[in-house]
Amino acid sequence: MTPEEKKSGVKRLGPWFHRIDLGDGVITKTESLSGEPADHPLGPWRIIRECLPPDLTGLRVLDVGCNGGFFAVEAKRRNAAYVLGVDSQRHQVRQAQFVRRALDLDIEFRRLSVYDLSRKALGEFDVTLALGLVYHCKHLILALERLFDVTREMLILETAVLLPEVFAAAPTPFPVGSITRTLHPLGYFENTPDSKESVFNWFLPSTSAMAALVRDVGFSEVSLVEVRGDRGTFLCRKFAGAAVAISLESFAAALRVESGPRAAPRDSHLTFRVRAENVGLASWRASADRGAQKGVVSLGMRLLQGEEEVDWDFGRASLPHDLAPGDAEILTLQFHAPSEPGVYFLEFDMIAEQISWFEDFGSAVARHTLSVEELGDGIPWFRLEGLLYGLESRGLKVPREASCPELVELAARTLAQLSAVDPAAVETAFRWILGFQPDESTSAGLRLLTRGQSERLPIVVRRLLTRADSREVPEAPSGECLVALGRRIECAKAEQRPVATCGSFPLEAAMARLLLEEGGDLDDERFVRLAYRRVLGREADPEGAGNAVAKLSVGETNRPHFLRDLFWSEELRSIP
After folding, report:
1. Residue 243: which of 145, 336, 377, 121 has the closest Cα?
2. Residues 6 or more apart in contact with residue 40 via CB below 8 angstroms
3. Is the preceding omega at residue 341 within 30 degrees of 0, hence cis?
4. By the 8 A CB rule, do 103 and 127 touch?
5. Digit-coded pLDDT (tens) for 8-18
6. 179-183 and 186-188: which strand pairing?
7. Handedness of CA 553, 555, 560, 565 (dihedral sign)
8. SS3 104
């Protein structure tokens, strides 16, 4: 930039508050603007430069309320790796950008308020400068919290201070109920309703009040460097692991339920995955022993019906590690569904142990509706076996020792996961459960219900399993018939393997399970012949066997439903 361009720019962008030497005999300011010395900010700089490391190589520096850019320029001249100056006033940012071009320095200037600062948006800075800033902040504590958030190690703060000769009160113990606190003098400037926040003054802290404020937002060490006239300079250090003091924005979370059932049998085991993002100013501290340490953060869950509280602390999940502001983690929370059927609301919220739930600080909870159903012994065994047999045919392991509701829930969850990668699995499950190939209307209805709504598939599965059967359950065979049947299917083994699902006679489901296991390695034809011998006590006739094998091969039925037809047949009941 030529000397003439520098002179023209200085004139065009005046008046100036910072006196900056642009070279070529061009200086931005030669006289006082509002009562400050004509060489301002040279006076404060003589103090501030003693607080800074002489070499800033490799460090990031943030100048908040940068005005014309004097201090940002000096930081860059000390070899700072990155310098960012921010100011809420457009005119000051234009001045600073002109200075950067005139001096050809690699400095970034942006129009931002102190309230816009966040570690997530800007990252952390090794050195933060807040010079002549805080008395312009209507929301003083929030401004200090923002400064804390973006500062990695050091904050240099310079401000007008309330002098003892103006207000003689010293810090004094002050009772608040049963607690005694230290009361510090802090002045407030009365402003007209149209006062411009960043131009007019709001608060005038005493030196003790300023130090207390900075400590309270989390800085570990605060020292008063010097008081000169009515100005005080403070050096504030933030050590690793420092946590912001408790305030409305200290603890805040963005929570989202990633997975979890909308409906479940009562007392069934449930698993929810919740994404938790730290959007506050305080790091979330994790601990293996969450109950022993104040401030340790966990994911908690409350259980409600309507607006009535059922259990205010229904479940917990610990953090796997500390979570800094801006970080997120998927947390897994496991618990048992309520014992009483009904519609419940699950409220997920973070909690700082021995301090408060985050909701009390204004953080939003994640709410989830859970329908708890009565699901016990009333499921026809052939539907449950059909579903489980189908899943096992896909190579999926099913723990047969689980209870009926647990088997249903496991099968429903597995099928929901399967449908996410194989939409045809929905129609396949229809065949597994109901025992026949879905027609066009039923398959279209299932696709419509579950398309893009895999979380609803467990509900569909449970409804299919418990739907009314068009075929009336026959009376049990005679005692003699059941004795003979027990011999053929080794009733002693069946008695050791009870399955809590309904059938037409005792142990029907357990006998079917034994036959399915015995014929697991057989093809359809040999399985049909095995079933005829075990259930009916005779060899399969060619026509009956051929018809059954044909239906099995094309999916019109499955092995559990084929066994159901034999167990419910008139022929079995007619055997003497």
Report:
1. 145
2. 17, 18, 19, 29, 32
3. no
4. no
5. 999 999 999 99
6. unpaired
7. negative
8. coil
Pairing of strands 108-111, 172-176: unpaired
How far is residue 170 from each of residues 186, 214, 533, measured CA to CA in Å?
11, 18, 100
pLDDT of residue 77: 95
Contact between 247 and 360 under an 8 Å Cβ cutoff? The reply is no
Tokens encoding 437: 């190939």
Q: Look at the chain and count its residues.
A: 576
Bond into 15 cis (ω within 30): yes
Q: What 3-state DSSP class applies to 203?
A: strand
Whole-Å CA distances, 363 to 183, 323, 339, 549: 29, 16, 30, 61
Among residues 455, 495, 484, 497, the alpha carbon closest in space to that of 572 is found at: 484
Is residue 270 within 8 Å of residue 337, measured between CB atoms?
A: yes
β pairing state of 221-228 and 231-237: antiparallel
- Both tokens of residue 298? 């966990």
Angle at 365 between CA 291 and CA 123, to 5 degrees: 85
Which pLDDT does position 420 carry in this prediction? 66
- pLDDT score for 399: 67
Task: State CA 177 to chain mean position distance.
Answer: 38
256-294 pLDDT, tens digit per residue, is 999 887 777 776 778 899 999 998 877 888 875 544 577
User: Which two structure tokens, joined as six digits, stand for 179?
Assistant: 């607690």
- The predicted structure's pLDDT at residue 293: 72
Task: Find the DSSP H helices in 327-403.
Answer: 381-393
Query: What is the DSSP code string of 402-458?
Result: S-HHHHHHHHHHHHHHHHHH-THHHHHHHHHHHSS---HHHHHHHHHHHTT-GGGHH
66 within 8 A of 109, measured Cβ to Cβ: yes
Contact 277/476 with Cβ under 8 angstroms? no
What pLDDT does residue 453 have? 55
**Which parts of the chain have pLDDT scores under 50?**
290-291, 496-500
H helix or E strand, kind and range, residue 44: helix 42-51
Taking CA 351 as the corner, what is the angle to CA 348 and CA 352, rounded to the nearest 5 degrees?
Answer: 165
Q: Decide the pairing of beta strands 231-237 and 151-160.
A: antiparallel
* Contact between residue 203 and residue 240 where contact means Cβ atoms under 8 Å apart: no
Q: What is the Rg, in whole angstroms, of the alpha carbon atoms belonging to the chain? A: 37
- How far is the C-alpha of 253 from the C-alpha of 564, rounded, in Å? 53
Task: Please give the helix or strand (H or E) that residue 333 lies within, else none.
Answer: strand 328-336
Q: How many CB atoms lie within 10 A of CB 169?
A: 11
Task: Count CB-CB contacts under 10 A for residue 491.
Answer: 19
Q: Under a CB-based contact definition with an 8 Å cutoff, are residues 360 and 312 in contact?
A: no
> Shortest CA distance to 9 belongs to which of 33, 27, 30?
27
